[in-house]
């Protein structure tokens, strides 16, 4: 309260430029600035360098934009929640074997069905299988490890990472036993690509992601409390374990949907959430959630714009983001800016 | 103890025999006929054996010994049971060094490439140790976790560089642990890695002491820093050599020392020979599986080791936790 009054007095006493500066130093102001940049990059993405007809370009780019937005929302919110639960800034749900599980599902389907049946397979059926297997298995993993013993989340995460390695090796094994045609079909399905999403799936995934994100946002106050750690949160009246499971389930849904949409992206969430903490100027989830979503949008959309128009880089955005996110991780650890 | 030694020896002999006999070209299953030179068949068998099968088996044994010993030393230095060169970025750095050689100086001799790989491994391991000093270790699981993410970061860097140079496929094939290319004249540098395993045995007591931690071991009169650097050097050189000759064989160095320490404990002078023998046995077994599972083709051993090793790792991890050791 005191703080607020002090701020108000300052605001009244200073000139308008100073008032503006104070506004942009406050969490809502920072958020507004970020949103402005995000909107700008979305506009640039849609309008820059249009060569074909407007209608076609907008359709084509709009679809891609929706994919980018869906991924940005899902991965950013999921990573933020995961870091809040683990109270650790170097973790993302994606390093817990999600991407390799996705790979294993694809590989197993091609292996069992053969390449022709796989290509003809109903997209909704495929999507349903992917999302339900991923959400189901990840939730049962959490349940198993959490209820089997009073466990630190680190063990859970390590188990996830190692399971990831296991899935990865298993799909490599299956891939080695395939014939070349099957392997080619599979390879197309495996690389993270922001171009290939099916438009009906896109709408379905978008709706699911939007609902889940909204639900997560409505929990912002509880998340603030949980961020203080289990003992304090329990003292403040949170029933910790049910909440933990609920949130982990939401995270599983978000990451599964995003991964099923575009394939694996690992370090993106790490990068986005840490930038959000750094730039939001607050630890309140009310601002943190929209901030990380906005930064996610900026990273993906502006990244695409720069890659396509700025450089004639022939690398994939996903590889670039992985690399930058990875470097970022090292800097974070070296600066002790986490945990 | 004597009975265990004899039993272990018999298992190894059996594995060596199977490893020599299994393969695409059939050879006489009776070893007495290999050297007889009684007919053409015998001469052909001998040629296959000396050119391909024996080098491969020796390479497997050397790699098995040196990798599991390197894993054990790493575990002593980091004071954590769940690390090994392939989960702490050492191997990834070595691969990165090789990739850069491939891009900027493809014509270099194998020895120079290997030296570059070792130097990169050394740098990477040093960086990992630096990272570890900076983090707050609250649980046994944090160290391998940081190591794995660190390794994944270097993996992403490799993917980035390889993608730019359009070498994705060739580096992938090269790094993947595989003994199918081992022929006479292509593996001999592994002997050096094997020698380093012996050197490690000679200096084993120092590592046992270092495993007590810096303060304790210095109180006991150990030059901790020197031993530490020596250990990192051993681990890096072994990783560099094996990556450059046969590729990455994950989890061997992690699983073997753990299994051995369950039985004989942590005194390195007792444990090391057992680690070496178990490592050789496990890698021989995996290689035989790799050769038989899609016979007459074969699967890279790194893949088989990945499946078996990660399952064993999970078992070790979940087994050790309920005692509240975190």
From TrEMBL, chain A:
Keywords of the record: Cell membrane, Membrane, Transmembrane, Transmembrane helix, Transport
Pfam families per record: FecCD
Species in which this protein is naturally found: Oleiphilus messinensis
InterPro entries: ABC_BtuC-like (IPR037294), ABC_transptr_permease_BtuC (IPR000522)
GO cellular component: plasma membrane
PANTHER family: FERRIC ENTEROBACTIN TRANSPORT SYSTEM PERMEASE PROTEIN (PTHR30472), PETROBACTIN IMPORT SYSTEM PERMEASE PROTEIN YCLO (PTHR30472:SF19)
Name listed for the protein in its UniProt record: ABC transporter permease
Subcellular location: Cell membrane
Coiled coil: none
Family matches, as SUPFAM superfamilies: ABC transporter involved in vitamin B12 uptake, BtuC
Taxonomic placement: Bacteria, Pseudomonadati, Pseudomonadota, Gammaproteobacteria, Oceanospirillales
Single Gene Ontology BP annotation: siderophore-iron import into cell
Main location: membrane
TrEMBL record, chain B:
Location(s) in or outside the cell: Cell membrane
Gene Ontology terms for molecular function: transmembrane transporter activity
Membrane topology recorded in Swiss-Prot or TrEMBL: Multi-pass membrane protein
Principal place of residence: membrane
One GO biological process term: siderophore-iron import into cell
Any single GO CC term annotated in Swiss-Prot or TrEMBL for this entry: plasma membrane
Keywords, in A-Z order: Cell membrane, Membrane, Transmembrane, Transmembrane helix, Transport
Transmembrane segments: 58-78, 90-108, 114-132, 141-162, 189-209, 221-241, 271-293, 299-318
SUPFAM superfamilies assigned: ABC transporter involved in vitamin B12 uptake, BtuC (SSF81345)
Superkingdom of origin organism: Bacteria
One Pfam family cited in the UniProt record for this chain: FecCD
Family: Belongs to the binding-protein-dependent transport system permease family. FecCD subfamily.
Protein name per UniProt: Iron compound ABC transporter, permease protein
